[in-house]
Specification:
The chain folds into 2 domains: about 140 residues, Rossmann fold; about 100 residues, no CATH class. The chain contains 8 helices and 9 strands. Bound molecules: S-adenosylmethionine.
Length: about 260
């Protein structure tokens, strides 16, 4: 029997896409509708489910490798970082699950952010799989997430923001002629503590959900423009889905 690579919290398919390039496939467990649709369009296999209540034992005897990328929002600088408060509970859950004790319900009741305990889920799957002497290997994505590419990488796949078509209400010749005046940065959302990274820095984690979906290019006067020539900066430009994908290291034509 051909053994499976299981991908917990599979997202839109970063690991799956890399595996495809290596001639392998995984089966993702993921609950988000749009991540699942993206995976389907990319030809990736998915079980749309919540990883936490899903039975792990059903995979026993079938697994070659385990990939796990628990969500990092509970620890994110863009959030309240209650994961840090919950850390002892997460450690307790990992220790309990590794010994075959499922104390998640009780620990979850004590968590300040319910998402914190998802970090312990890979241990539950590993404990079940280990009873069958599996898996052969495990890879986990760090809680700080995969570093984004510098925005300059966009030039490989598509125009950088200063080379893009101007917004409809901006006179095109002025915009094009003045593009060099601005140094562009990527602001990861519309909250006051949003990550802002220059185009030559690694992009922050781009999170599109609820209120945090205003990911924009923001312009600042370039450092080589004399004070006498400074003008007010153009309005922020909303990032495209394709740009966001490239900055998270997906190819430009990824669905
Ligand atoms: C760090 S991202 C994974 C990115 C993925 N590793 C990739 O390479 O594209 C975490 C994913 O976990 C999903 N997720 C969060 N909580 C979940 C849960 N309880 N069950 C299933 N998926 C969940 C989110 O929707 C998100 O897509």
């Amino acid at each position: 029997m051909r053994r499976i690579i299981l991908d917990l919290f599979a997202g839109p398919g970063g690991w799956s896409h890399a595996l495809t390039g290596l001639g392998a496939r995984d089966i993702g467990l993921e609950w988000d509708e749009w991540a699942c649709k993206t995976r389907a369009k990319a030809g990736q296999l998915t079980i749309r489910t919540d990883v936490a209540p899903y039975p792990a034992w059903i995979f026993c005897g079938r697994i070659l490798g385990l990939i796990a990328s628990p969500p990092c929002q509970a620890w994110s600088m863009a959030g309240k970082r209650l994961g840090l408060v919950d850390q002892p509970l997460v450690h307790q859950s990992v220790a309990d699950l590794a010994a075959g004790r499922d104390t998640r319900e009780q620990l979850l009741g004590e968590c300040a952010d319910k998402r914190s305990l998802l970090t312990a889920e890979p241990t539950r799957y590993l404990h079940a799989l280990n009873l069958a002497g599996e898996p052969e290997w495990v890879v986990m994505e760090g809680l700080r997430g995969r570093p984004g590419l510098p925005a300059g990488a966009l030039r490989l796949g598509r125009p950088a923001p200063c080379q893009r078509e101007p917004p409809a209400d901006t006179p095109a010749p002025t915009f094009a002629a003045e593009a060099h005046r601005w140094s562009w940065s990527l602001r990861s959302n519309n909250q006051s503590n949003a990550t802002v990274r220059r185009a030559d820095e690694a992009a922050g984690t781009l999170f599109f959900g609820h209120r945090a979906n205003e990911c924009t290019w923001v312009a600042d006067t370039a450092s080589d423009v004399p004070d006498s020539e400074q003008r007010s900066a153009p309005a922020p430009i909303k990032i495209t889905a394709q740009e966001a994908g490239v900055l998270q290291s997906f190819p430009a034509d990824y669905p």
